[in-house]
Amino acid sequence: MLENRVFALTDLGHAELDKLDGNISGNEKRLMQLLDGNSSLDEVKKLAPAAVRYDLERLLNCLLDKRFIIESQQISSPHVLPITDLKNGGVPPAIKPLYMEMRLLAEIEGKRRLAAERELEQVTLQLAETRNRLQALTDKYQHLTSRIQLYKCSIEKKFAEQNAQIAAISGVSQDDRAERVKLESELGRLRVELEIKQDMMDKITTEMDETVHQKLVVAQSIENQKRKQIKIEAENRVRTHPQYARIRGLDFFKKFRNSDLDALLSWAEWLNVKAGETVISEGELGLPFYVVVSGRLAVVKKRRTLSVLKAGNSFGEIAYLDDENPQRDVSVVAQTDCELLKLEPSHLENAELMLRMHIAEALVRVQAQRLRRTVDTVVRMLD
User: Fold this and answer.
1) At 76, is the secondary structure helix, strand, or coil?
2) Residues 360, 339 share a domain
3) pLDDT for 300
4) Which residues sit opposite 343 in a β-bridge?
5) pLDDT, tens only, 207-234
6) Which of 121, 132, 160, 330 is the most buried (most CB within 10 A)?
7) Could you tell me the residue range of the domain that residue 288 belongs to?
8) Rounded CA gap, 164 and 69, in Å?
């Protein structure tokens, strides 16, 4: 049975786990930290967070595919565990062509996006290299400045010694005037030499500052151009998406940028639900949440309808926000044929910070609206 199987990290898994910025998600990392090669999956599940227990089979498959883990009794290449289809039992034939086309587009755009991000990463590395060179030049400038300061101190010391000698000579005799003139001439020569070196140092410093400034401006300009290009490509790409106009008109996405919608549509799952079909059931475990694109759904608890959801509303986010207790507290049943966007938390972990912020803001706005309606209902009941 699956619960009695034992897994351990491979050398590649240990190396990936030690990286500060690896290619694994948070849940994958949490699971890898629990796989010690001695504990069975049943024992691991007792120690794992709820989000890992809920998605355990998929996480194991991902880690086996990447060769980060292996069964303790196996030396050959790991096999892939079957992932249970929780809801749909496959893609309906009516939408299979569109579904396959959208998956192909998502894979192509994902590769383009990855290439653009790699190019941006190279520009960032170049900028970091330029900054390192600037630091090296700054250190060199400070070293030269300290040397000039030491040289000035040495010259001033010589001036003091020669002035002392001149003062001593002036009081000795008339015969020593020649020596005094010689010392004054040497003193003048040293002053001219110091002024020349100071001018050269000022010139070198100015040239270094201009060179470093120009390199920084060029590197920053290249980085800005790359970011603008990525944004323009995302704008053009999302506007050609077949569902863009419908998504853009929903209240849930009103503050999203087009680049955010482009990223979201590349991994969000589009669902078609028939009237009477149950989307989530009270008491079941689940972390995904949904946004209603069209149709109406009833929120039911203990066979009592609490509210009706329409286009632009979301549901299922409570379990996502409280991932330590991912249990559904209500059921949601379609009253009419509906279209839904299904958002998986595992995808959000790797999304851009701005997209995660917009989603969090939208969820807070939904909770605030529900709280306001609840307060109004309580006030009416008290009156």
Assistant:
1) coil
2) yes
3) 95
4) 289
5) 878 887 888 788 777 877 776 776 677 7
6) 330
7) 244-382
8) 82
